[in-house]
Amino acid sequence: MLTGLNHLTLAVTDLDRSLGFYRDLLKLRVEATWDAGAYLSLPGLWLCLSLDPKRHPEPAADYTHYAFSLGAADFPLFVQQLRAANVQEWRDNRSEGASFYFLDPDGHKLEAHVGDLASRLAACRQKPYAGMGFFNEP
What we know:
This protein has three helices and eight strands. It has helices at 15-25, 75-84, 117-126; strands spanning 8-12, 29-34, 37-42, 45-51, 66-69, 89-91, 99-103, 109-113. A four-stranded mixed sheet has the order 1-4-3-2, with helices on one face. The protein has a four-stranded mixed sheet with strand order 5-8-7-6, with no helix packed on it. It is globular and about 50 Å long. The relative contact order is 0.16.
């Protein structure tokens, strides 16, 4: 039986550049590095950067992305710091909770989001998506 998400591995084209992005800008903790990769962490997250020459830095056209949690009080400064670093935005927020959608140096789609599943479901109960059904009562 699955117990949760174990880790994310992102293919990168320039390990030093990506390590700097996740360590210095996003403030993930570096746990280990080696010639072709690095392990970083946040509470509840294990992130692996893996050097991969097959990685193309163009972002995918679909909506697949990875979202990080952020407190409401920290959100404005976080967004300001990313914009000051000229991090590319890829979408405007269209849902509940403050969100900032941005790309990493290899075009991986990321999001910083204020909120959680409970707050999203509460907002959806007030204004459901087309065809939405709920399976558990609040």
